[in-house]
């Protein structure tokens, strides 16, 4: 069952791309690259990595996304990567237990719950699609520690309008 939670702002190192849904795996591989670059500098992630959906194209064939790895302090990982901050605020949160293939249905369930509860999402609809301030998939399970995707936990956290 979804709930409303307060989240503090969270600094992260990220990578952004606009891709078709078939390009999401390539973007996801950037999480490991960021974690590896942090490790080379003797740093560890501050908490679980995430996908941040920024723009869902009107054609639903393209999406602008970021992958992010939370950090305590800004760190320079080179030109491909940037430092940013997830905004504090109230978020609707639900946890999906299982393989990533179930995230589409879990997201639909969270959005349907929000509609039923008259939740106002922090998003705008523009000519090129839906623009979200913070629509997150937070990957709480480390695949190296738990290789079976059926045992993975992913938090869906969507920021509410102020």
Describe this structure in words.
This is GyrI-like domain-containing protein. Residues 1-161 form the AraC effector-binding domain. With 162 residues, the protein is α+β, with helices and mostly antiparallel strands. 19% of the residues lie in helices and 43% in strands. The protein has 2 helices and 9 strands. It has helices at residues 24-40, 103-116; strands at residues 3-7, 10-20, 50-57, 62-70, 82-86, 89-97, 123-126, 129-139, 153-159. Strands 1, 2, 3, 4, 5, 6, 7, 8 and 9 form a 9-stranded antiparallel beta sheet that branches. A hairpin with a 2-residue loop joins β7 (123-126) and β8 (129-139). It starts with a strand and ends with a strand. The model has no long low-confidence stretch (mean pLDDT 96).
């Amino acid at each position: 069952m979804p709930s409303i939670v307060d989240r503090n702002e969270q600094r992260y190192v990220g990578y952004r791309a606009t891709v078709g849904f078939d390009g999401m795996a390539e973007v996801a591989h950037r999480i490991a690259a960021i974690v590896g670059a942090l490790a080379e500098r003797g740093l560890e992630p501050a908490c679980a990595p995430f996908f941040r959906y920024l723009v869902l194209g009107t054609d639903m064939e393209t999406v602008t996304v970021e992958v992010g790895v939370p950090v305590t302090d800004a760190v320079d990982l080179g030109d491909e990567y940037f430092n940013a901050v997830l905004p504090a605020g109230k978020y609707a949160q639900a946890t999906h237990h299982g393989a990533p293939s179930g995230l589409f249905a879990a997201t639909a369930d969270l959005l349907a719950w929000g509609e039923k509860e008259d939740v106002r999402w922090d998003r705008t609809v523009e000519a090129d699609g839906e623009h979200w301030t913070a629509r997150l998939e937070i990957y709480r399970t480390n695949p190296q520690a738990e290789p079976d995707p059926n045992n993975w936990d992913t938090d869906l956290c969507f920021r509410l309008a102020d």
